Automatic annotation (TrEMBL), chain A:
Designated name of the protein: Aspartyl/glutamyl-tRNA(Asn/Gln) amidotransferase subunit B
Keyword Ribonucleoprotein: no
Role: Allows the formation of correctly charged Asn-tRNA(Asn) or Gln-tRNA(Gln) through the transamidation of misacylated Asp-tRNA(Asn) or Glu-tRNA(Gln) in organisms which lack either or both of asparaginyl-tRNA or glutaminyl-tRNA synthetases. The reaction takes place in the presence of glutamine and ATP through an activated phospho-Asp-tRNA(Asn) or phospho-Glu-tRNA(Gln).
Domain Asn/Gln amidotransferase, first and last residues per copy: 332-480
Upper lineage: Bacteria, Pseudomonadati, Pseudomonadota, Gammaproteobacteria, Nevskiales
GO molecular function: asparaginyl-tRNA synthase (glutamine-hydrolyzing) activity; ATP binding; glutaminyl-tRNA synthase (glutamine-hydrolyzing) activity; transferase activity
NCBIfam families: gatB, PRK05477.1-2, PRK05477.1-4, PRK05477.1-5
Protein source organism: Solimonas aquatica
EC number: 6.3.5.-
GO BP terms in the entry: glutaminyl-tRNAGln biosynthesis via transamidation; translation
Superkingdom in the source lineage: Bacteria
Assigned protein family: Belongs to the GatB/GatE family. GatB subfamily.
SUPFAM superfamilies reported for this sequence: GatB/YqeY motif, Glutamine synthetase/guanido kinase
UniProtKB/TrEMBL annotation, chain B:
UniProt name for this protein: Glutamyl-tRNA(Gln) amidotransferase subunit A
Amidase domain residues: 22-464
Enzyme class name: ligase
Function recorded in the entry: Allows the formation of correctly charged Gln-tRNA(Gln) through the transamidation of misacylated Glu-tRNA(Gln) in organisms which lack glutaminyl-tRNA synthetase. The reaction takes place in the presence of glutamine and ATP through an activated gamma-phospho-Glu-tRNA(Gln).
Keyword Nucleotide-binding: yes
A GO term for molecular function: glutaminyl-tRNA synthase (glutamine-hydrolyzing) activity
GO-annotated biological processes: translation
Superkingdom per UniProt: Bacteria
GO cellular component: glutamyl-tRNA(Gln) amidotransferase complex
UniProt cross-references to InterPro entries, sorted A to Z: Amidase, Amidase_dom, AS_sf, GatA
Keywords assigned: ATP-binding, Ligase, Nucleotide-binding, Protein biosynthesis, Transferase
Reaction catalyzed: L-glutamyl-tRNA(Gln) + L-glutamine + ATP + H2O = L-glutaminyl-tRNA(Gln) + L-glutamate + ADP + phosphate + H(+)
Source organism per UniProt: Solimonas aquatica
Length: 482, 485
């Protein structure tokens, strides 16, 4: 951030298009799966053939309600689908079925953590609509290919209040929103495939101004990093325009990921008059209190609640709880480890966060593709808890598990890693070390306490690291004391 | 055979007096002989018809099939029919062969076993009251071939009136079943909005469009409407409610039936001849035991202006899909996308369709929506409330269907407003969504006059019963135009 934030205030509102994870399209029975051959998932309704009619997919409606409940929003008891008109080859009917005056979800909010504090971002509305198809320009000479597989895929467009004040806040909001829709199971969250994409409305004003500055809308930014870069670029561009005596033009802009810049796409004057009106093919949708309660009963535990529970139930620090609840699959993994390991919750958290996530990160793997199952990690922690192995040996076992050498017990047995708890064996090792290092014994006894670590290391080495560390410490102290 | 009722034809088929193939061939021959004068069909599906007839004969031979199995039927060219051009009488869809059947098409042909003779002419996209806006040229009225058959279902009525089909499907957005039925001496019924599926019927104005039937009597209409009606999960506006038995009640007495005569419909506008025939019809209903009283539909003068906001608005939206990209007419040698749209639509749509798209686009535009579309919706509610009050007092509302008998071809085609006023009596039923029908009540100078009956929601059986009782004591509906006997 290179602008002078004492002089300038940034105002950001985000519109997020989130594809709903339904099997079929929002108004027809055609499949929604990504990646099929072009136009193989375009039925008569998708193609907008003469005479076809839309029928609302009830699952899409339920998913929108779920989202609304998750952001503490009002769920409209009666919402209306409207037609939004514009001509484009990948929009088969010449209009998009969306919601305009009466959206399904309104007046919600999402709390984000920023600079060590919590900030509440208002969610103006979230409405249901159908996605358009795709226009393919590459590989066609003087032609455009149209793929209508995506056309009719259900979306919710989530519109925030202009409550966001920096690119960092925007990213924090988006990440939180992304986590939420994935948690809810209403969206796969795949940003590369366009399942979760963002339009950023950005304006700047001098501090103290009460009126918003003129805003620009940067369309279809599909990664957190790009959103950050696009917003930062826009902030600096707008400040430059104003500082050099110009005026920001209300317009739609496009972000170029290669240059990190935005460029003008169309001005307000060229904007479409969408001629919204209620779609006469679809009756107003009535959602009863009973419907809402039924949907509420199917809601999973949400990230914030889960985090708070992890802190309370497992006594974890907020940081650990935050990491572990970042993804539902990770939280489930952790809880499975705690439940079956008999280890203490914090030890389990350390293993999952430091060792497992570290290893997965190196492998570039997701928790769901972890080479070590929760049961196996629990098995390892259990062997530490029952003192079969030490924490140090456990790291070796962990590496072997990662390499696919089996469960902890198999590895411990195969490698002969069982911890030595027989005190006479430990005493013997200590006596050998002392016998071999008389000078160090003398120095230690002469007051060089630091040498204690040296003796621990030597004794451990002599037992191939298998000595029980507590017993070793205690016995070593006794022996060295003379 | 072409003078027989559907019940008679059905009995003849069951008794093996003739086969469906013979019956179908008879109609195909009549089409060949007479349709050059009328232009009532856009497409005749002779081969397919004979194949369907053979299939019907096979079913009948095994003692299977219902009342309509093997009976020929003409389809208005607004209903999608698999493998057959579905043009909506537009150059835009001249090359469009539907890959699917409208729900009513599968109900009538696949389920009921009727034989499709072909696709009937109409005003382009059902926009018109004379069938003169068709890309395929106008249809003539069999009662006087220099006159229009009404519209938009002009091809359907001309075919049935001339004995080129026993019955035909039709659609009614502002009177497109009733006004043509009135002008050609037929019985036509537009059921309650939502009673018949709109799936596969090319949309003009979605909140007003309703499919129905034109036939030579109320009884014939009842047979076909019975087979067309019912809930369709593919149409969100169709209504999940059992279909009444439309035939069972036809013969019931109408003694004590309360009929309302709206003051506003009789005040002015009707020609003297039409007024006379309607007055006579009222006397017939009185003789049948009906109680007739004057009622008021105070907001009926608002119908036409309301309609000409709502219908074009929805049409401008519904017709946006015809862009030359996926199907239909595509302009050649275009320089860019905008030109592709402009020229494809400019070339593919006729003048009346373009006019309505422009009106509709205007009334939905930013800054005008509240003044026009929203206001029209409020008026629509007033019109609906008029009927609600009326049906608290009476069972049916009776009046003229059209102001006058059929006008001359070309007489009004340059005056859109005069043309729009053709629907002055019929539009209200579409705006309110109530069922309404037209039946013949005599002639003026040899040209048919239509009587309109309107009923409360889902009162199709009562409407058809009243019409049938009227037709038991009158014989206007049995008359055929002399040139086509």
């Amino acid at each position: 951030m290179s602008y002078d934030s004492k002089t300038w205030e940034v105002v950001i509102g985000l519109e997020v298009h989130c594809q709903l994870l339904t099997q079929t399209k929002i108004f027809s029975g055609a499949a929604t799966a990504y990646g099929a051959a072009p136009n193989t998932q375009a039925d008569a309704v998708t193609l907008g053939l003469p005479g076809v009619l839309p029928v609302l997919n009830k699952t899409a409606l339920e998913y929108a309600v779920k989202f609304g409940l998750a952001v503490d929003a009002q769920i409209a008891q009666r919402c209306v689908f409207a037609r939004k008109h514009y001509f484009y080859p990948d929009l088969p009917k010449g209009y998009q079925i969306s919601q305009y005056e009466l959206p399904i979800v309104h007046h919600g909010h999402l709390d984000i953590e920023i600079d060590g504090g919590v900030k509440r971002i208002g969610i103006t509305r979230a409405h249901l609509e159908e996605d358009a198809g795709k226009s393919l320009h590459e590989g066609y000479s003087k032609q455009t290919g149209i793929d209508l597989n995506r056309a009719g895929t259900p979306l919710i467009e989530i519109v925030s209040e202009p409550d966001i004040r920096s690119a960092a806040e925007a990213v924090a909001y988006l990440k939180k929103l992304h986590q939420l829709v994935v948690y809810l199971g209403v969206c796969d969250g795949n940003m590369q495939e366009g399942s979760f994409r963002c339009d950023a409305n950005v304006s700047v004003r001098r501090r103290g101004e009460t009126k918003f500055g003129t805003r620009t809308e940067t369309k279809n930014v599909n990664s957190f990093r790009y959103v950050e870069k696009a917003i930062e670029f826009e902030i600096e561009r707008q400040i430059d325009v104003i500082e050099s005596g110009g005026k920001v033009v209300q317009e739609t802009r496009l972000f170029n990921p290669d240059s990190g810049e935005t460029r003008s796409m169309r001005s307000k004057e060229d904007a479409n008059d969408y001629r919204y009106f209620p779609d006469p093919d679809l009756l107003p949708v009535v959602v009863t209190t009973a419907d809402i309660e039924r949907i509420r009963a199917t809601m999973p535990e949400l990230p914030q609640a889960k985090k708070e529970r992890f802190i309370a139930q497992y006594g974890l620090p907020a940081y650990d709880a935050g990491v572990l609840t970042g993804e539902q699959a990770l939280a489930e993994y952790y809880e499975a480890v705690v439940a079956t390991s008999n280890g203490d919750a914090k030890t389990c958290a350390n293993w999952v966060i430091t060792d497992l996530l570290g290893a997965l990160n190196k492998l570039g793997k997701d928790i769901s593709a972890s080479p070590i199952s929760a049961a196996r990690l629990a098995g390892l922690i259990a062997r530490i808890a029952d003192k079969t192995i030490s924490g140090k040996i456990a790291k070796e076992v962990f590496e072997a598990m990662l390499a696919g050498e089996g469960d902890a017990d198999t590895i411990i047995k195969a490698k002969g890693l069982v911890q030595i708890t027989d005190e006479s064996a430990i005493v013997k090792a200590i006596e050998d070390v002392m016998a071999k290092n008389p000078q160090q014994v003398a120095d230690y006894r002469g007051g060089k306490d630091k040498l204690f670590g040296f003796f621990v290391g030597q004794a451990m080495k002599a037992t191939q690291g298998k000595a029980n560390p507590d017993a070793l410490n205690r016995l070593l102290k006794e022996k060295l004391a003379g | 055979m072409h003078t027989q009722s559907i019940a008679e034809l059905s009995a003849g088929l069951k008794a093996k007096k003739f086969s469906s193939r013979e019956l179908t061939a008879h109609y195909l021959k009549r089409i060949e002989s007479f349709d050059k004068q009328l232009n009532s069909y856009i497409t005749v599906t002779a081969e397919q018809a004979l194949a369907q007839a053979d299939a019907a004969d096979a079913r009948l031979a095994q003692g299977q099939g219902g009342a309509l199995t093997g009976i020929p039927l003409a389809q208005k060219d607004i209903f999608c029919t698999t493998g057959v051009r579905t043009s909506c009488a537009s150059k835009m869809l001249d090359s469009f062969i539907a890959p699917y059947d409208a729900t009513i098409v599968s109900k009538l042909h696949d389920e009921a076993g009727m034989v499709m003779l072909g696709k009937c002419n109409m005003d382009e996209f059902a926009m018109g009251s004379s069938t003169e806006t068709s890309w395929y040229g106008p249809t003539a009225n069999p009662w006087d071939v220099t006159r229009v058959p009404g519209g938009s279902s002009g091809g359907s009525v001309a075919a049935v009136a001339a004995g080129l089909a026993p019955a035909a499907t039709a659609s009614d957005t502002g009177g497109s079943i009733r006004q043509p039925a009135a002008l050609t001496n037929l019985t036509g019924i537009k059921p309650t909005y939502g009673r018949v599926s709109r799936y596969g019927m090319i949309a003009f104005a979605s909140s007003l469009d309703q499919a129905g039937v034109v036939a030579r009597s109320a009884e014939d209409a009842a047979y076909v409407l019975q087979a067309m009606s019912g809930f369709d999960p593919r149409d969100s506006t169709s209504i999940e409610r059992p279909v009444d038995d439309l035939l069972a009640g036809l013969n019931g007495s109408i003694k004590g039936l309360k009929i309302g005569l709206p003051t506003e419909y009789f005040a002015k506008g009707m020609s003297a001849g039409v007024q006379q025939r309607v007055a006579e019809a009222i006397e017939v209903f009185k003789k049948l035991g009906a109680e007739v009283k004057e009622i008021s539909l105070p907001n009926s003068p608002l119908s036409v202006p309301t309609y000409y906001v709502v219908a074009p608005a929805e049409a401008s939206s519904n017709l946006a899909r015809f862009d030359g990209v996926r199907y239909g007419h595509r302009a050649q040698d275009v320089k860019n996308l905008e030109e592709l749209y402009k020229r494809s639509r400019g070339e593919g749509f006729g003048a009346e369709v373009q006019r309505r798209i422009m009106i509709g686009t205007y009334v939905l535009s930013h800054g005008y929506y509240d003044a026009y579309y929203l206001q029209a919706q409020k008026l629509r509610k007033l019109i609906y409330e008029d009927f609600k009050r009326a049906f608290a007092e009476v069972d049916l509302v009776l009046g003229p269907t059209a102001t006058d008998v059929a006008f001359k071809l070309g007489e009004k085609s340059d005056d859109p407003v005069a043309m729009y006023l053709n629907d002055i009596y019929t539009i209200a039923a579409n705006l309110a969504g109530i069922p309404a029908m037209s039946l013949s009540c005599g002639f003026v100078d040899g040209l048919p006059v239509g009587l309109q009956l309107m009923g409360n929601y889902f009162s199709e059986a009562r409407l058809l019963n009243a019409a049938h009782q009227y037709q038991q004591v009158t014989d206007f509906h049995k008359q055929m135009p002399k040139a086509f006997v």
